[in-house]
Amino acid sequence: MTTPLTSTNSPAPAHGPARYRTTAHGIQVVIPTRCPSGQHRLTTNTCRIYETESTLHVACLACAEAASTEHTWSLTTQGRAALSAEFDDQPYLDLLRPRQSS
Q1: What's the pLDDT tens digit per position in 18-38?
Q2: pLDDT digits (tens, 9 = 90+) for 38-50
Q3: Phi and psi (nearest 5°) for 61?
Q4: Where are the annotated segments for Disordered (predicted)?
Q5: Comparing C-alpha atoms, which of 15, 33, 26, 43 is closest to residue 82?
Q6: Which of 100, 86, 64 is nearest to 18 (CA)?
Q7: How far, in Å, are 1, 36, 63, 75, 91 from residue 66 at the CA level?
Q8: pLDDT at 58 over 70
Q9: By C-alpha distance, which of 36, 32, 34 is closest to 71?
């Protein structure tokens, strides 16, 4: 599943680097399938993806609506550009595991 990317201006501290894959469709950024709080599954309908300078932000709409302080992943892009995104937790297990034990 892929989703187009949009841009806006909203700073946030980075959680770590964004992960990428090269497919027949070009470079895709990989997005975690769970929100930072671990409560919700992220899909094209349940999150908003936007970019600021060299950071990709993935906001969980349910957490944002509930005013959760952990509603957005912020992943550094280091200037890499992707035309689409793919959801997969595997490349982000290092970020997800510590949150599960909270």
Answers
A1: 999 998 889 999 999 999 988
A2: 899 999 999 999 9
A3: -65, -35
A4: 1-20
A5: 26
A6: 86
A7: 26, 14, 5, 22, 27
A8: yes
A9: 36
Kindly state the tokens that stand for 2.
């892929």
Question: Nearest-CA neighbor of 5 among 36, 34, 33, 27?
Answer: 27
Tokens of 86: 């793919």
Residue 102's pLDDT band (boundaries 50, 70, 90)?
Answer: very low
